[in-house]
């Protein structure tokens, strides 16, 4: 009777393992697929475009979360060790350098929620006093984030520049996070997780224009300085998501 006890004890355990597979207390496999995207995304699966500028060379930048929306570099220089995460970033000359991304349905949000996030280290504004950092659409449509006379502004559709002065924070040779998001009809612009602009806009921002990073409507409106870690999401980031991104600094 005693000799049968081990068999009676291990038989249920053997049946459990055969049903559910071997138990792995530690998974050391690298993340991939959706798990990789989620590791980059404060809101899982919301990012539709992510250009990290980590290539360090070449004339194109990959979208890290999709095969769509590849960026094409015009006149920018690679800063091989000056990026936010100590890897590369792109340097824009303020005259003729920019990144071009073809129009894509994933970059058109209609009247819905969305987020644009990036990191900048700008040079002092000269000339017209206006530098476009990222733009999709012409006047009266789309979205644009700009530096205007030492102020950072985020505009949707027909909105015009407002008097939000953030000059004490931007031009200090350090990296700054900028986030523009719309949740329902509430539009907010954040600088280093501090809200500097807010207004209501429920209009349709979809358009057929390409997306430009660093390019203005004219040469005098082009951005000068470094840009890194550009993300666009189809979801309006709430406080926890914005803090997750800002905490990367």
Overview of the molecule:
The protein is an alpha+beta fold and 249 residues long. It has four helices and 15 strands. The chain has helices at 5-20, 33-39, 167-170, 239-246, and strands at residues 47-51, 60-61, 71-74, 77-79, 89-93, 98-101, 114-122, 130-136, 143-148, 151-156, 176-183, 186-191, 194-200, 211-213, 224-233. Strands 1, 4, 5, 7, 11, 12, 13 and 15 form an eight-stranded antiparallel β-sheet that branches. A seven-stranded antiparallel β-sheet has the order 2-3-6-14-8-9-10, with no helix packed on it. The chain is globular.
Q: And the CATH topology?
A: Jelly Rolls
Judging by the overall fold, what is the CATH architecture?
Sandwich
Tell how many strands the DSSP assignment holds.
Answer: 15
What's the mean pLDDT score?
82
Low-confidence stretches: 1-39
Largest sheet: 8 strands, antiparallel
The computed structural class is alpha+beta
Assigned CATH class: Mainly Beta
| N-end to C-end Cα span | 67 Å
* Strand-residue proportion: 25-35%
What form results from the Cα inertia axes? Answer: globular
Q: State the helix count.
A: 4
Provide the gyration radius in Å: 23 Å
Helix content: 10-25%
Number of domains: 1
Order of helices and strands: HHEEEEEEEEEEHEEEEEH
Q: How would you sum up this structure in a few lines?
A:
The protein is of the alpha+beta class and 249 residues long. The chain has helices at 5-20, 33-39, 167-170, 239-246; strands at residues 47-51, 60-61, 71-74, 77-79, 89-93, 98-101, 114-122, 130-136, 143-148, 151-156, 176-183, 186-191, 194-200, 211-213, 224-233. The chain is built from four helices and 15 strands.
């Amino acid at each position: 009777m005693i000799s049968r006890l081990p068999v009676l004890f291990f038989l249920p355990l053997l049946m459990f393992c055969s049903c559910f597979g071997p138990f792995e207390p530690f998974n050391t496999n690298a993340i991939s697929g959706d798990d990789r995207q989620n590791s980059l995304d404060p809101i899982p699966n919301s990012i539709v475009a992510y250009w990290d500028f980590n290539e360090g060379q070449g004339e194109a930048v990959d979208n890290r979360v999709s095969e769509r929306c590849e960026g094409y570099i015009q006149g920018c220089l690679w800063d091989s060790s000056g990026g936010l995460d100590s890897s590369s970033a792109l340097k824009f000359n303020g005259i003729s350098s920019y990144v071009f991304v073809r129009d894509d349905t994933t970059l058109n949000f209609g009247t819905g929620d969305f987020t644009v996030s990036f990191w900048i280290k700008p040079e002092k504004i000269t000339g017209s006093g206006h530098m476009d950092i990222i733009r999709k659409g012409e006047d009266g449509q789309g979205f644009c984030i700009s530096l205007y006379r030492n102020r950072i502004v985020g505009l949707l559709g027909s909105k015009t520049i407002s008097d939000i002065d953030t000059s004490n924070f931007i031009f200090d040779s350090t990296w700054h996070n900028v986030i523009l998001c719309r949740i329902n009809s509430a539009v907010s612009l954040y600088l280093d997780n501090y809200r500097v602009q807010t207004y209501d806009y429920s209009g349709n921002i979809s358009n057929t224009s390409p997306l430009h990073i660093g390019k203005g409507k004219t040469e005098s409106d082009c951005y000068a300085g470094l840009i890194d870690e550009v993300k666009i999401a189809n979801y309006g980031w709430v406080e926890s998501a914005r803090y997750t991104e800002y905490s990367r600094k």
